[in-house]
């Protein structure tokens, strides 16, 4: 235990140094601090608490991009044998070497650290209000870790007959969840073999933790003049909305979303294109803070997504599947709109298309992309050519020179939860619970209004509204990890539409005409057992009361 706490404290201190904006990870540690010293000084405990902020998952700083395992994107190279390849084309893995086995272990390590923190902090002398705030923050993190465990590792004994129209699975909450540990386990005193709780019990625990954390947070200001990125009441309530929606508790999810909306602290940022580069704007509820120092909290987004012709790696290559989902400005899909011209397919689209995807003939990092056969960006990209003939643009800093000073990197924050999600979570939950009432239309149309798209047609059935909301989520949250979970919780990832990945081939003739032809880029597998990940084999062997997930036995 001593080693874990000390290591965690040191890791937290390393993350505290920053020469950029002053945020929650920007405080200065003291030197030569022992573990005993930490638990005698509230300021040191506060510094140690910043370690937990470093555990929030950033889609920019992992060594893979989760969207590449969805029908929205594909990697430039099939060379990630640990995550993306097993999730898409190689079904040979088992509970011994499954993707995210290491994440399972990290989550439980952090839960143990959170439990230890919560058990020790009451004995630390200091300000009572600060203690209350820190306890609420750590309870949030513990709930976040359990929410992640539920998403990845709770059992999903799905069959086609049990999938409801909403995508939820009948009696899902009776299935195994994960092992709940709400206190520090002591070797020799506690039974270290703990059975899994039901998924319903796990969700109840997470919701209770977030609710109580939000109650404590209510005494905090709505925003901070320093410590950008610090958790607020809205963060706890917002994560609660997501947990309830993912669980299929639609009435409760809608009520929780209304609670966040009634705070009047958040609003849609007016410009979708710059939403992801303007840090800590009014739409952001939870964000992972980054800076531009390579050895601190920088990441490599800008280089990763650029084509090989620009010395990039062409990660998150957008698919034709996704491109086809962007409406024309009349609100209709290309296949249904009289505005669509197959010989000029990118004109007249939803504004979010231009903010998200770069295409042949568009300007990208200061020059025009040439993605037709024989074009500069195809011929000169080497192994990192755009496989689908598209390049990911969303959130990048096109003026940042990633080939310059090696000590600098990309610094865009990862928006873990933003207000647009609260609105669309509400719309989905309310539609599933009560049908497409006026409030459902209002929240979806607010998102569409920002994009310059016409309002939804009146009189939609619940089924048609469901399809409209799912479409809106795919467009609004492209490349934000949402699609990975939406495919799974709606139980549509095993359907052919999600497994056949398309790009386009572009040919230019001597007379200047351009022809576009759809082409299969990759055929993927997805079996029913893949709706959840197996419990790592090592944990099954070490815990005599552990049950493996149903379809992974």
Automatic annotation (TrEMBL):
Key word Membrane present: yes
SusD-like N-terminal domain segment(s): 45-245
SUPFAM superfamilies on file: TPR-like
Subcellular localization, as worded in the UniProt entry: Cell outer membrane
Entry's Gene Ontology cellular component terms: cell outer membrane
Organism: Chitinophaga solisilvae
Keywords: Cell outer membrane, Membrane, Signal
Family affiliation: Belongs to the SusD family.
Pfam families, per the entry: SusD-like_3, SusD_RagB
Residue ranges of domain RagB/SusD in the record: 303-552
Superkingdom, natural source: Bacteria
Stated name of the protein: RagB/SusD family nutrient uptake outer membrane protein
């Amino acid at each position: 235990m001593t080693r874990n706490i000390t290591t965690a404290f040191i890791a937290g201190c390393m993350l505290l140094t920053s020469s950029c904006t002053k945020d929650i990870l920007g405080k200065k540690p003291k030197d030569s601090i022992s573990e005993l010293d930490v638990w005698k000084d509230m300021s040191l405990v506060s510094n140690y608490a910043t370690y937990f902020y470093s555990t929030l998952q950033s889609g920019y700083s992992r060594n893979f991009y989760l969207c590449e395992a969805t029908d929205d994107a594909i990697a430039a190279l099939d060379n990630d044998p640990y995550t993306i390849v097993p999730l898409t084309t190689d079904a040979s893995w088992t509970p011994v070497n499954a993707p995210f086995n290491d994440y399972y272990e990290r989550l439980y390590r952090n839960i143990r650290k959170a439990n230890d923190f919560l058990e020790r902090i009451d004995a630390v002398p200091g300000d009572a209000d600060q203690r209350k705030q820190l306890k609420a923050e750590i309870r949030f993190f513990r709930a976040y870790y359990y929410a992640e465990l539920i998403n990845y590792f709770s059992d999903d004994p799905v069959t086609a007959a049990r999938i409801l129209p909403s995508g939820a699975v009948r009696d899902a909450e009776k299935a195994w969840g994960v092992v709940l540990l709400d206190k520090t386990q002591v070797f020799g005193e506690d039974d270290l073999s703990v059975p899994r709780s039901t998924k319903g019990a796990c969700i109840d625990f997470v919701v209770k933790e977030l609710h109580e954390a939000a109650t404590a947070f209510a005494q905090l200001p709505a925003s901070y003049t320093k410590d950008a990125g610090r958790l607020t009441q809205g963060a706890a309530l917002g994560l609660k909305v997501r947990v309830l929606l993912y669980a299929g508790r639609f009435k409760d999810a809608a009520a929780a979303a209304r609670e966040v909306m009634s705070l009047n602290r958040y609003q849609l940022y007016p410009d979708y294109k710059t939403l992801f580069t303007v840090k800590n704007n009014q739409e952001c509820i939870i964000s992972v803070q980054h800076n531009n120092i390579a050895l601190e909290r920088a990441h490599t987004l800008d280089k990763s997504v650029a084509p090989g012709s620009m010395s990039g790696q062409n990660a998150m290559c957008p698919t034709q599947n996704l491109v086809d989902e962007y409406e024309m400005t009349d609100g209709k899909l290309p296949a249904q709109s009289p505005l669509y011209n197959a010989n000029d397919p990118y004109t007249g689209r939803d504004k979010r298309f231009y903010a998200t995807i770069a295409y042949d003939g568009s300007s990208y990092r200061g020059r025009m992309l040439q993605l037709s056969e024989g074009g500069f960006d195809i011929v000169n990209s080497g192994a990192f050519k755009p496989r689908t003939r598209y390049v990911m643009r969303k959130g990048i800093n096109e003026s940042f020179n990633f080939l310059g000073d090696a000590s600098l990197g990309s610094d865009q924050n990862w928006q873990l939860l933003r207000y647009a999600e609260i609105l669309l979570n509400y719309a989905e939950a309310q539609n599933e619970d009560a049908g497409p009432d006026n409030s459902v239309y209002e929240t979806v149309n607010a998102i569409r209004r920002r994009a310059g798209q016409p309002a939804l047609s009146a009189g939609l059935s619940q089924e048609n509204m469901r399809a409209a909301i799912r479409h809106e989520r795919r467009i609004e949250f492209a490349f934000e990890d949402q699609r990975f979970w939406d495919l799974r919780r709606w139980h549509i990832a095993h359907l052919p539409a999600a497994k056949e990945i398309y790009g386009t081939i572009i040919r230019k003739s001597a007379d200047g005409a351009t022809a576009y032809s759809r082409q299969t880029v990759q055929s993927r597998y997805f079996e029913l057992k893949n709706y959840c990940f197996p419990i790592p084999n090592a944990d099954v062997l070490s815990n005599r009361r552990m049950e493996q997930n149903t379809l992974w036995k």
